[in-house]
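Hey, I was hoping to borrow your eyes for a little while. I've dropped the whole record in just underneath, so have a look:

——
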Amino acid sequence: MFIDIDCHQVKKYNQNAFGDYFVSKRYPDEAKLIAVLSDGLGSGIKANILSCMTATMLLRFVENQQIPIRQAAEIVMNSLPVCKIRKISYSTFSIIDVNDEGYAKIIEEGNPEFIWIRNNEVMTPHYDTIQSKTFKNRCMKSYKIKFELGDRVIFCSDGVTQCGLGNGRLKLGLRREGLINLVLAKIAKEPDISSSELSAYIIKQAENIETDRLPKDDISACVLYFREPRTSLVFTGPPFNQKNDAQYAQAFKEFKGKKAICGGTTANLISRELNLPITMDKEISIGKLPSCSYMDGVDLVTEGILTLTETLECLESGQLYIDNAAGKLIKFLLDSDCINFMVGAKLNQAHYNPALPVEIEIRKNIIKKMATVLQDKYFKKVSVQYM
């Protein structure tokens, strides 16, 4: 089971910083992930610092099981000071620690209650209430849940539930009930909608509800979707030992999932060993990248180092929609959950051509950086096999 997770946010109108802070990290060795959504008091820089501090502290406490999640949340709850003017906590938070089998621990303090959807119905989980030892009016909810395939979980800041507050249509804001109706209607229309698309949809609808579409508060929505993983394989670079070409070609053929080849030498290897002809794209390439090629049974065939380099740059910068081979590779990667790289270790002398751009790096370094970005920024599971 794969945990598809993403979060979208918008800032309060006329602010330069997000008052909410979201952080998530996968731990492949432990087959789990931890995510935290914190809402800082007020908005702008001050709220950003408070929410960032809270979320980072919780993540650092819980990761590697240094402190049990419940104890970590209690420490934070009892430590957060109260605003002297508004008499409320400097920040609120929601944290989830969940493994690939669906066993989860969730703690909430001050944020809107999360929404758990199974088979288009909202579930009502049991929870324990933990009273703060420092502040009489502060407590948190602790949950232990076993999620199943197809379940969805939505966390949000109060910028979502309170959007539209005071306007003619929603005098009390969207509220949790309104958010539930909105999400259920969307899932009914698009049963396989991804976490990224659903969280973006929630944010867009919340913005539309606001008067003049100007958010009166920071708005954040985090979605988790428990589903079958979408696997993919990227084969790039010739293997170090040419005697193993047939073995690697057969492994590529037998892989169950989407497949991509990056590199002319690699494509020729697969074509030769599997007797699959390569068809060149007749369209004129846009920009500096060569056009894609086509091969039966392969979802994407691109040039190698140039395309990988631009793909990495775009993933790092967040420029995801470009009309060339790198754009197609980006879509291939982001449409996958578990990405496997087969990377040839043989040096290609073309990479040392002084006529090529200085910023081009050796293939192994590019893939290493790409794997890190895909894991940390796009929440993918990535494995790399050097050959």
The first helix runs from residue 44 to 62. The chain is about 30% helix and 30% strand. The domain at 2-227 is CATH 3.60.40.10 (Phosphatase 2c; domain 1). The mean pLDDT is 88.
